[in-house]
Structure formats: C-alpha cells, structure tokens
Amino acid sequence: MKLGVLFSGGKDSTYAAYLEKKKGNELTCLISLFSENKDSFMFHTPSIEKTKKQAEVMNLPLIIQKTKGEKEEELKDLEKAIKKAKQEYKIQGIITGALQSVYQSSRIQKICDKLGFECFNPLWQKDEIQYIKELIKEKFKIIITAVAAYPLDEKWLGREINNSFITDVKELSNKYKIHAAGEGGEFETFVLDCPLFKKPLKIKNKKISGERNSWRMEIEVE
After folding, report:
1. Domain spanning 2-120: CATH superfamily
2. Can the peptide bond before residue 122 be classed as cis, meaning omega within 30 degrees of 0?
C-alpha cells in the first residue's frame, strides 16, 4: 500500500515509517507541519526544518504545510497537507508515530476517516522501555533536542539515546513519573541515522536556548 508519513524528524514518526516499510508497505512521501506555535498541541518540535535534510537522505519527497499552530484550527492545515499528498502521490493511507496520545491519534484518525484513508499507528501502546531498546537494536541514532520537565535540564540536549540513557530515564520515570519515551512532551528528539537513511547526518552547528527545565537545541545538519 502507498503510504504517506506524518513526519517530524523525531524517533516516533521515523521508527513508525520503518516498521511499516518492513511490513511491505511503500513509503511514498513525507508530510511535515511547520508550526509557528512552539506550544502547539499537535505539531511541536525544534529543528523541524531539518526534515528537509532527512527527506534527502531517505530519498523521499517532502510535503511542507505551514500552520499557525492554533488549537483545533491546525487540523485544517493537516487535512490540507494530506489532501495534497493524495493528489500528488496517490497515497492510500497515513503512518503516524502516535504512542499513547489519544488527543493526537483521535484527531488524525478523524481526518483519515473523512478522506477514506487507512491510518497506521504501529507504535500504539508499546511499552516505553521495550520501545527504546528496539530503537537501539535497530541501529537508530537519535539525539535529544528539547526538554520540558523537571529535573531535565540543558545537560540532556544533544544526548544520544543508548543504554546509559535507558538506565537514567528509567530512574527518572520511577522517581518523577517522567514518561521514558517522552510521550508527555518531557523531551523531543531528532534522528541522525537509521536504516531508512542512505547516509548519516552530522551536526554542523547548534544553538541552545532556554531556562530552568525548558531548553531547546536548534541544529544545522549536513
């Protein structure tokens, strides 16, 4: 089946695409929403424009839809982007990286139902620790690009998701109830390499901003 990927450049959307390709589905295009609102309920990720570089190394076309990121209104922009993907690339369904967010998954499903699309959520309800272990096993190189929860701070920015990350995040999950996969917005990620990439991406420059337990790292990659 020809599928479009709702793509943020982070671990969830990238791994979801990888799993669906392994099942035999065709990744036809990537769809990224560039939101003006950093606190958008649906689309919030630092370095979102770097999905252009990821699309290049995945050898896939990228549909970019800008949105003001206003609650509920931004869904009209998402629908517009999906319609464009259907028109240009004849997609038959959508892949999402939804893990536990009913808010996000229900709204995407509603759009897919309206357009007569199938919606694929291969990560839905995965155990978070097992999920992170899968990412490492499948050779995904992922870094943290934002944090937004106590006691996470700027020291976590740029950190790679590996076995020591699992040890530390499990401890924080037990002590502070942080979701180990960042599903509650505790942290955001960017994929530098994975089996879908023709070559790994490298960080050329980075810019860090924030305070207390809310930090972001904007990156340039090559």
Report:
1. HUPs (3.40.50.620)
2. no
